[in-house]
Design goal:
- By secondary structure, the protein is of the alpha+beta class.
- It contains 7 helices and 13 strands.
- The protein has helices spanning 36-45, 60-63, 66-73, 85-89, 91-98, 169-180, 199-205, and strands spanning 2-9, 14-21, 26-30, 49-54, 77-78, 117-120, 123-129, 138-142, 147-151, 154-155, 158-159, 188-191, 197-198.
- The strands form 3 sheets. It has a 6-stranded mixed β-sheet. A 5-stranded mixed β-sheet has the order 1-2-3-4-5. Strands 10-11 form a two-stranded antiparallel sheet.
- Strand 7 and strand 8 form a beta hairpin.
- It starts with a strand and ends in a 7-residue tail after the last helix.
Length: 212
């Protein structure tokens, strides 16, 4: 069975998520932006075998710790989409700009595209490319568990910023409507910041995309 545990990290309170197959305890961490000691402590407490790093996008608060974690534990970095290559290249500059510890450069072991899958034990998640917040943003959908890890595409009551380089409001709304809503109203999403919500609740009440 697919399980997850969310750990807010970095001064931006970014939701890093430990995800795993509870039959094998094979695990991945989604968006390890920082506070790696805390993430590793939580993984150990839960008895997880951390084997992969999954990235929704390459902003500093989501990807800042990925290079160090990959190097120290020998883990593959999976994602995001190649559209975020320039954000990966800019991680050292991002860390200086926002006062983060220096981010180690990295090259993803595997880029992701719309329609790809990622797996942990018997658990398989679908990958959807959802540009708008960044050009290479992806979302991980655990269909059987009715959970989606959406990074900074959608929040409870809000949507991702589109004023960064490569952002597009029109693309973001299109991503939400054509890629997220079809996952179903009952699907619970874990955003990059703030509390969980459901797609149905946001379809009804979100002031940016409600009624779409």
């Amino acid at each position: 069975m697919f399980r997850y545990h969310t750990v807010p990290v970095t001064p931006f309170a970014q939701n890093a998520s430990l995800v795993w197959d509870d039959a094998t305890m094979q695990a991945a961490v989604i968006d390890p932006g920082g506070d790696l000691d805390r993430l590793l402590s939580e993984a150990a407490r839960l008895g997880l075998r951390l084997e992969q790093i999954w990235l929704t996008h390459a902003h500093i608060d989501h990807a800042g710790g990925a290079g160090e974690l990959a190097r120290t534990l020998g883990l593959p970095i999976i994602g995001p989409h190649p559209g975020d290559q320039f954000w990966i290249d800019a991680l050292p500059e991002q860390s200086r700009m926002f006062g983060f510890p220096p981010a180690e450069p990295f090259t993803p072991s595997r880029w992701l595209a719309d329609g790809d899958t990622v797996s942990l034990g018997a658990c398989t998640l679908q990958v959807r490319h959802c540009p708008g917040h960044t050009p290479g943003h992806v979302v991980f959908h655990a269909a059987e568990a009715q959970r989606a890890f959406v990074g900074d595409v959608l929040f409870a009551g809000s949507i991702g910023r589109t004023d960064f380089p490569g952002g597009s409001y029109e693309q973001l709304v299109e991503s939400i409507v054509t890629r997220l809503w079809p996952m179903g109203d009952e699907t619970v999403f874990i955003p990059g910041h703030g509390p969980e919500s459901t797609f149905g609740r946001e379809r009804r009440s979100n002031p940016y995309v409600g009624g779409t």
